[in-house]
Amino acid sequence: MSKANHHKLDLGNLDLKRTYTFEEFKLANEQLKTRTLEIDGNPVDLFEFNKGKLLPMPQSPISMEAVVHEISRQLGNWNVYNHQNGIVTTSQGGFNFCISGQRTIRAPDISFISKNIYRSLDCQQQWTFKGQPFTPIFVVEVAIVREGCQEFNDLDQKFREIYFATSSSVDLGWLVDPMNKQIYIYRRRVSEVVYRTSHGWNNVNGGSILPEFTLEVQQIDDTISQESSESSSENGQIIDCPKCDETFSNDYKYMKHYENSHARRWRK
């Protein structure tokens, strides 16, 4: 984009009702990396893109972001230790869902791309939003919602019409509400109809889409709890690795060893 066009896009005077070009969308997000923007009193650090419209994504308060990190941590551990070798992304990871042939850049709070999809990407797809569109197979949104409220309806529509669009690879989606203790599960039927079920605040497994993955909700609760927890002293306990002759003085050193020397060596 030319220097002249760079100065035409003034983030302080955006008109979110007008249509922007894809280049302007990219420029807006580039500028947000080095400056602060508030819309309706909410700080924004990312735009999504839908049919030429800029969709502001407000920054997350600490507890919401902690939940996102905990879910992505559990998913990331499963990805490594279960030898899935896919890619886990968080809310900066945008995808072109390409609805009705139009660019639709959306950034789920958490997503998972299978190794088959990722390894089929060319350099242009890996490092830009150009090339053939591709999407994850699993998405998560974390929000404080109640059924019937506007935010719930907006997110429900986002799952049904964007994430589970006919051209999308998404086959499983979770809407996680850590404050009201509710998880909504979205799946795609063979007939392409998307259906939603309420799961309550219980451990939820990934079924055939994420084989052997289970989200442990107690670990989410522990992460955002403000109550102190008892920390046990290791008292010089030595940890023996069951895969080799190495020994370790604490859990962290052992886990790093196991991941680097054993779990990742299975990567294929």
From TrEMBL:
PROSITE patterns: ZINC_FINGER_C2H2_1. It comes from the Eukaryota. One of its GO terms (biological process) is double-strand break repair. Residues 241-262 form the C2H2-type domain. PANTHER family: SLL0198 PROTEIN-RELATED, SLL1222 PROTEIN. This is Zinc finger, c2h2 domain-containing protein. It comes from Gigaspora margarita.
